[in-house]
Amino acid sequence: MNVPRDASSTLDPKFDSNGLLTAVLTHHQSGALLMIAHMNEEALATTLESGEATFFSRSRGRLWKKGETSGHVMRVVEARIDCDQDCVWLKVEPAGPACHTGADTCFFRRIDGTTLVRD
Amino acid sequence: MNVPRDASSTLDPKFDSNGLLTAVLTHHQSGALLMIAHMNEEALATTLESGEATFFSRSRGRLWKKGETSGHVMRVVEARIDCDQDCVWLKVEPAGPACHTGADTCFFRRIDGTTLVRD
């Protein structure tokens, strides 16, 4: 009898129809949400083995280590997985801004009605 | 000339080919990642108007207010959006556990190699 994913003590990631799961990165100290990206099986394995966040770039169609060009590597301090094992939470120590705009976090704007406020 | 989504001061959510975006919920005080879900346009509008996290359930194919049966409503303290406006971060005050297992967060297991540890 198989143990369901939400009660299991074994890693058994559930990839979607595109072979991907969602990765959520927060700052290991401040707790701030930094970015969201996607991982295929290889990206997840690489991340867990190397301790550096590695994703699957859907636009580029290839593995993409965060910081491979910018140097803004995200070192994994802790990795957790959700109940149905289709989402991974990485608490990371960032070597630089998470966002391509240069902001520390991709979530640099607050929603106020239909306005976005930078605060 | 249109301002690109990552520089705009106007909410202009980018829904995927299924009409959905990702919503990330964290506890407004502890910063803990509670859960991930999806929103269509109506779910996002309902969330922002009502101040209570409402999603689109892909399995049920309908709008789903978190806590509609359990009572574990997630009150939105702050809503933020990421650079390309395809992901929303909600800082919430939960009225109860986020996870269907009864855990405070869906991310109740840490990944240690191929083992999942509850800590």
From TrEMBL, chains A, B:
Q: Which InterPro entries match?
A: PRA-CH (IPR026660), PRib_AMP_CycHydrolase_dom (IPR002496), PRib_AMP_CycHydrolase_sf (IPR038019)
Q: What does the note under cofactor report?
A: Binds 1 Mg(2+) ion per subunit. Binds 1 zinc ion per subunit.
Domain named Phosphoribosyl-AMP cyclohydrolase: residues: 35-108
Name where it mostly resides. cytoplasm
Cofactors: Mg(2+); Zn(2+)
Which enzyme class?
A: hydrolase
Q: Which GO terms describe its biological process?
A: L-histidine biosynthetic process
Give any GO molecular function from the UniProt entry: phosphoribosyl-AMP cyclohydrolase activity
Recorded family membership:
In the N-terminal section; belongs to the PRA-CH family. In the C-terminal section; belongs to the PRA-PH family.
Describe, as the record does, how this protein assembles with itself and its partners.
Homodimer.
What the protein does comes down to: Catalyzes the hydrolysis of the adenine ring of phosphoribosyl-AMP.
Its recorded name reads Phosphoribosyl-AMP cyclohydrolase
